[in-house]
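#dry-run=false #mode=assembly
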Amino acid sequence: MSEEHKKLSIISFSGDFDKAVAAFTLATGAAAVNWEVNLFFTFWGLNILKKKTGRAFIGKGILARIFNFLMGGRKNLPLSRLNFAGISPHLMTGMMKNRNVATLSELIDAAKALGINLIACEMAMHILGVKKEDLIDEVREVIGVPSFLEYSRNGQIIFIS
Amino acid sequence: MSEEHKKLSIISFSGDFDKAVAAFTLATGAAAVNWEVNLFFTFWGLNILKKKTGRAFIGKGILARIFNFLMGGRKNLPLSRLNFAGISPHLMTGMMKNRNVATLSELIDAAKALGINLIACEMAMHILGVKKEDLIDEVREVIGVPSFLEYSRNGQIIFIS
Amino acid sequence: MSEEHKKLSIISFSGDFDKAVAAFTLATGAAAVNWEVNLFFTFWGLNILKKKTGRAFIGKGILARIFNFLMGGRKNLPLSRLNFAGISPHLMTGMMKNRNVATLSELIDAAKALGINLIACEMAMHILGVKKEDLIDEVREVIGVPSFLEYSRNGQIIFIS
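#status=ok
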């Protein structure tokens, strides 16, 4: 397998804390050993990329605004199990710090520093009324399925739901 | 990469509304740009393919019948989060219509029209007591893991859980 | 595609009963038709590999010990939906026995017998304070993302979340 095949495309569909950590751990780990990495955020995963890291009424349309408020941003990501009303992600972050493991915020910074291709799903943004300016500036493109598949050619695709 | 490598095999394990939309969006988007697509339904994913779109006591054995009733059909798929007792999938469908985005029903029709290979998992059907005649006619085959892997050779596999 | 490409690497992130069954069914089904299989357990998935199959205060640090107790071991895996306080996995196992389908325990034994490469995630173990001796002896290695990707080269990667 030639170098060009060392390519990983991750579809980050989930907005759960633990799965976001998994997505960024895989992405940064792969980029660190020179794999090309595409990190594509869709649906709940968009919450990780929102500029506003807390709850905010963003989006177009009353339903979208309520839905975005309820989902919140990066600071509101729940644990997929044993969430205990949102306390667990904070405890987990504490455990990660104690063990000298990169926290989610640090992983996101590492992804930016490593030049990982952060892309957002056009259709999910359209449904949820989220605009490009609602997302962090590092999001390079807003694309659809055909473009994502083109980016992922010859590589491996992982879906984190 | 030759044309024959443009192949996507999706394992649709989830019976959640949002993940079913994701599976069919990926499948139809890939088929639209001439990828070969295998859409393999297992466990909760079988609910999407049931002929009876509402709750029904299908299956063999009392436990299987109760379980199938509780899971329901395509109209009972819950949102994986913020489901609000089943109201959210309807609100979400409304938002999709307002934005002129294909709804789940339209995506399923598109998948049929595009000739996407809809296949069902033999073992999951056996465990849940679901028979081929309980599923929509477009399901071409009921197969096991080895056949699925054979279909997926040289392609990319995605698992939506 | 040459024989060397018949390789499947499964990231078993989930600690849900139904998804564990899916991971081992895919793994053993692939190994049975001579695919090379890597089964990589991370985060909740580590519960499947714990020596203590029930609840136990394992791990280093008070938070880790509580968290491991709450997650439990192989006998405490919940169904991802319709869990009914842990009754459903037992009912499901009963249904599997009635249908002569391999149960989770039998699938794990088959995986061992087939020589499937069981590996555990270094970072997840570190965060959760779980040590190699807490896991079943069949776990060959504790590795990080770069080693996992190296194992998965030329193969197909599946993420079960």
